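Co-fold these.
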Amino acid sequence: MHFGLRFKFGVFLAAFGILASGLTGYYFYSASRTLLVRVAESDLSTASQVLGRGFSTTLDEVARDVRFLAALPEAVQALASKPGGEGEAGQRLAESFAAMLAVHPEYFQLRLIAADQHGLERVRLDRDGRGVTRVTGADLQEKGHYPYVFRTLRQGPGEIHVSRIAINHEAGAHAGQERPTLRLATPVSSQGGRNLGLVVVNVDLEGVFRLLQADLPSSYQLYLANEWGDFLIHPDAGLAFGFDRGRRYLLPDSFPQAGRLFEDRGRHTVVTSTEPDQGEGKGLVAAFHRLPFGETADGRFVVLGLSQSLDRVLGETRALAIRTIQFVVLFSLLAVLLSWLVSRLTTRPLNMIVEAVKGFSREHAVGELPLSRKDEFGLLAHTFNDMQIEIKAHLAQLDENRRQLDHLARHDPLTGLANRMQMFETLEHEMAAMRRAGRRLALFFIDLDRFKEINDSLGHAVGDEVLRVSARRLKGLVREVDTVARLGGDEFMLLLSGLDEVKHLSAIADKVIHALEQPIPAGELSLSVSASLGVALYPGDATTAADLVQKADLAMYQAKAAGRHAWRFHSSPGEGPAPGG
Amino acid sequence: MGRLFCFLLALLLQGGGVTWAAELPVLRVLAWPGYADADLVRVFEQRHKVRVEVTLVSTDEALREKLARRNGGDYDVVAANTAEISRFVDLGLLQALDLAGIPRTRAQARAFRDLTAIPGLTRGGRVYAVPYTYAEMGLIYDRTRVREPPGSTADLWDPAFQGRVVLYDGSGHNFTLAAIRLGLPDPFHLSDADFLRATQALVDLRRNALGFYSLPEEATELFRRDGGVLLFANYGAQQVKLLRAAGADIGYVLPREGALAWLDCWAVTRGARDKALAQAWIDYMLEAPVSAALTERQGLANTLDAPQGGEGQKRLWLEPVEDPERRAALWRRIVSGDTPEKLRKKP
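Predicted complex below.
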């Protein structure tokens, strides 16, 4: 298959158009995708910091509550009594604990623990399924071996111990048992500054974050990790507190970029996005914020994170992608249409010129050209037009030259009469015509007498003049249709065709003899030249041109032999008299 | 675009892998992280012209669950500790080994060649498992504050260390420790009377303790920050390494009554497709470079080198205990701080 310029041009333009709109669409899509991810990261980053501040504020409030309870005089009084003998002070303290638990649903447990008796609990209120229970007597436990006890007891008055966040495995802890728990405790000190015991509150970690998270969009998912990277809160509850079940699930394993928060203490916030095929297994945008936690001197911290699924973040890009595809398809169609138009617009004048060139070379006709255009095509048309005109002029010149050459080839340059070739052609032509028309023709063979002597004695110039004058006279004698020719030397021929009868031929022969014998002025001389004449007729004397000429020639020789200056017919109508004879 | 390329590449490689894999016999290994590293597996694969499928587990529970499925028919060779091996033999999940097919057992340290001395590995005179790696639970002490190195499990109860003993929060081991402390003949199997005595002993231990840990990091913190001087090293040498890395000047001793120790062994399942190949794997694991890699990479002791502390050191290889649930329930109450009075009552 042959693809024309127009096709190629169109395809190229269309391809370019489709490519351009496709690339633009793709760039537009990916740029807005990136932008959306950035916005989501920024939102999450802000939200995680706000959440972090909220968490810190909550811890401060819990600390204030614990300090308040530890400062109650009933706390010291209860600790000063014997176990089981807390009495009135114990009762009032229990009432205060109960009031606090009523206000704070996120508190699991409030306890007063003694520094002695292996950390025996003295006043203890637990939240249980129904409400709040006071635990007493043999159900009180020794807690001295728990870090929240021995660490708090080493602190100064008013100082707060914040425990690690852990699952509370302490048996008999009612609602808080086996739940993620955070403990805040502060010592209860005597007047002398000795730590007699402590007040500790068990805080429901999930309850706290349920409250904090209430203000965040529901699509945000929460993460919390301790300073070793273990998840404490994870959207997949199975991954939280993995270490508690003998298997660790670490935040840096799920979010490698967030690993920096655990190594590089200079950073506080990390945003990260994971593609569906890495990290968490599904695409996420996430922000993590490191938060000081507990005693600041220890450099303890937790990492709080919020994530949003990439699907949700990019939900708007899905619509955008569809719009982009529509846009690309539409513009591709436009590109195809436009390229068709443009290629048509450019190739039409070209085709016009091509047609003009074809027409010109076929029949030298100048076809229609886009001459009115002002562009390169106009210029090309003008140039071609000029070339056409020039070529036509050249051709005309050539025709003229050819005609002249043709004339030269068929005429005698001296007299301007037809030469032997022309004479024979005309003769054959006329013979055929006469045969068809049933008419006759006569061929006169004329030879000037003693011409050689003139030439030799008076020179060629005079001879030529004699030939020219003789020719003129012969021409003057005959009709326009008749042919006069010079065969060469002093031999002439006269062809008279279209004759119905031959009786006038003798008179014509006489006229020829007479005309030629008139004196011819040559310088100061006046020459008189006679001629001998032989006539042959067709049909009758010959069947072919050569034969006819030969017969006329023969007749002329008979005339010459008879003494010149006379005429003879090859056959009838007989011999002509010698002039003057 | 880059993802697409990766996807196509993965597809291509996967396709190639599948056709390649289909031609080779497969050895299915069930083991613990670090026991069958990819580079070591590759050597075995090349040498035996097989493909090795390694499945890793990280808990005894997962190991039990995987092995029990289809009666051990999903795996050819398995690594488990002596207590688990004993259970699996009881359940008929393992088959007896032909030690002639594992010639490198002859190069193991003496303590690991007398298989009848290690409970759980033999049954009716037939051998079911070959020791591979182990760890002992010794005592770590602070050399700057303890003049005389502790030599006995009983030192954990020493009032001299009151409030400074760091212990592991695990029911099974703590009852066994209490039984050792009480001099009971079989610390893994307690009678009802033993339980009463052990419970009281554990309350005493609790009252002598600084605190209890679950993770090695917690132990390090209790030791370094909270003033612990004597520590029961549930994680063995790994914890020694961790504490020394934290800058502690410590000593490590194995108690003379015998150190609790776990011992992981290789065994061949009943459903093994090719016993000879499975035994070749075990033999390969006992090659010097492979066993050495275990020590270098994981810090676990191998069975080719003579054990630290000498061949004469007594070890109490872990055995299934009489009633793990009972120990756990009781321990939970003890560690939660129940008083002896309350513990004497039925819960």
